[in-house]
Amino acid sequence: MSEAGTRARPIPPAGRAFYTISFASSLAIGALQMFRVRGGLLTSYGADIFGAAWLYAMFRQGRTVFQRGRTLPPGAAALGVFAGCAASEFGQRWHVIPGTFDPYDLAAFGASLGRCWLIDRRYGPIT
């Protein structure tokens, strides 16, 4: 196992697939929302679920501008992404950023990131 903050090996195919699927799903659901398609739970919480998974994959694989290829451990990635998502949601509540506060969004973030962490820990790293 590699140390946190280092890239010991290239991203495995499963990690690339996880990143690509979460990225494409998040963008597709975002497009549905932009075209005002009413898809029930899919358009209400799909972007929250897949967007959080996409961010998790980005931070785990070191694909952010701040990391420059340095990976994060699963727990740090999940907690960091959840903190950012929660800050965005509470910013909506306090009218600092546009949007509508929905506590179920926090549950969607938590469920998504918890599942990502479990997949990462149980089936092997996605980095």
The ordered string of helix (H) and strand (E) elements is HHHH
- Low-confidence residue ranges: none
> Which structural class do you get from the secondary structure elements?
mainly alpha
Largest sheet: none
Number of β-strand runs = 0
Domain count: the total is 1
Percentage of residues assigned to helices? 55-70%
Distance linking N and C termini? 11 Å
For the residues shown, what is the average pLDDT? 91
Oligomer: single chain
Which geometry do the CA atoms define?
Answer: globular
Based on CA atoms alone, the radius of gyration comes out at 15 Å
Beta-strand content bin:
under 5%
Number of helices: 4
Descriptive account of the structure:
It contains four helices and no strands. The mean pLDDT is 91. The protein has one domain. Helix 3 runs antiparallel to helix 4 (103-123). The termini are close together. The protein has helices at 13-34, 41-61, 74-93, 103-123. The protein is mostly helical and 127 residues long. 66% of the residues lie in helices and 0% in strands.
Give the topology, please.
Blueprint: H1 13-34, H2 41-61, H3 74-93, H4 103-123
Brief summary of the model shown:
66% of the residues lie in helices and 0% in strands. It is mainly α.
